[in-house]
Design brief:
single chain, 21% strand, globular, binds NADP nicotinamide-adenine-dinucleotide phosphate, seven-stranded parallel β-sheet, alpha/beta
């Protein structure tokens, strides 16, 4: 295949390029080249998709398949207008943030309600309108494409540092502050598995809307698998929502967060999506222990990003937790 990746200079786009090269395809990436480099063997065509004629360097090129990872409606509309006729398969990487309802467990991509799209004049996404902007992008792409709604993506080269916190933290061992309960749901996908599926979809002409994520697991399983992957010996100290909020521990990501924590029941549906259709359509996922091990190796060897509590913040919180428990005994 001649595959065009609109992106390809970091994380998922780069992993898709790498997987496609491994499968023997001819890979072109189109980006500014600011986020990073494309994998060895891929061709980078530099362009700025925010320019109205930004795709001009691709004029006259033909592709068997295109993968677009953009989050900006303007970029997606221009790409569809310029390139859709010249490629036989189109993948748009979307997100589970398109869904309107995060509370109801067990939802499926083909039936779940979507957020309202952004207003037609909106060109750029921001953090606040990310899900709505992706809905607009999906609409611009149309129904006869492969719409891959990714969930939390984990693995080597993750620029967010949020999954990386856990293998890195468990590797230090000892008492580990963890949020919620062992039964809380979690769901993620290894970047390499998602990339492989996206290449497979292009090869096989898969179309339709799917959630690109692995099976739902409990937080207890998540921690046990991560610990297995990095060969760590830890004691988990389960802190409840009231304690974490009182001590201003943030959710999901960023400084002073316990990464990947989303309080229940507000997010009971976020990490329990039914991914049977994706698995039936060829998505296979590696054991989480492998993702944890490889992410830790990447972090050590390449200085990969980590976000979350610092060691000092966690120690202070553990001391506060034990003091509280002593008072209530
Ligand atoms: N990470 C997660 O957990 C997660 C979860 C759900 C969904 N997703 C989705 O998964 C996808 C992730 O994609 P990704 O990891 O490849 O990274 P990304 O951070 O979304 O990368 C954007 C890509 O587009 C390029 N780009 C940005 N602005 C551009 C411009 N003006 N002109 C040309 N190129 C431009 C960037 O390269 P340059 O900067 O070099 O131009 C980069 O290669 C996104 O669609 C995201 O919404 C991610």
């Amino acid at each position: 295949m001649r595959l065009l990746i609109l992106g390809g200079t970091r994380f998922l786009g780069r992993a898709i390029a790498a997987q496609a090269l491994m499968a023997g395809h001819d890979v072109t990436c189109a980006a500014r080249g600011l986020a990073g480099e494309v994998p060895e063997g891929a061709r980078l065509i530099r362009m700025d998709r925010d320019e109205l004629d930004g795709l001009a360097p691709l004029a006259g090129e033909q592709f068997d398949a295109v993968v677009d990872v953009s989050r900006h409606p303007g970029q997606v509309r221009r790409a569809v207008a310029a390139l859709r006729q010249r490629s036989s398969h189109w993948t748009f990487v979307s997100t589970v943030s398109v869904y309107a309802d995060n509370r109801t467990p067990g939802q499926r991509a083909d039936t779940a309600l979507l957020r309202e799209p952004t207003a037609p004049e909106i060109e750029h996404s921001t953090e606040e309108i990310y899900g709505a902007a992706k809905v607009t992008c999906e609409q611009a792409v149309g129904a006869d494409a492969f719409i891959c709604r990714a969930g939390l993506i984990a693995g080597p080269e993750d620029p967010t540092g949020r999954f990386t916190y856990w293998p890195a933290r468990l590797d230090r061992g000892g008492e580990v502050l963890v949020p919620g309960t062992p039964d809380d749901a979690m769901q993620l996908v290894d970047v390499r598995d998602l990339a492989q599926w996206i290449v497979h979809a292009a090869q096989t002409g898969l179309t339709g809307r799917f959630d690109g994520i692995g099976r739902s697991m409990t937080r207890g399983e998540f921690l046990a698998e991560c610990a297995l992957g990095v060969d760590a010996h830890c004691t988990f100290i389960w802190a409840d929502r009231a304690f974490l909020e009182k001590h201003e521990v943030r959710r999901w990501t960023g400084p002073r967060s316990l990464p990947l924590w989303l309080p229940l029941p507000d997010y009971a549906g976020f990490a329990t999506r039914d991914t049977t259709p994706a698995r039936d359509a060829g998505l296979t996922v590696r054991p989480l222990a492998d993702t944890a091990r490889d992410t830790l190796s990447w972090m050590r060897e390449r200085g990969g990003a980590v976000t979350g509590l610092t060691a000092d913040e966690e120690s202070a919180l553990l001391a506060a937790w034990h003091a509280r428990a002593a008072v209530t005994r």
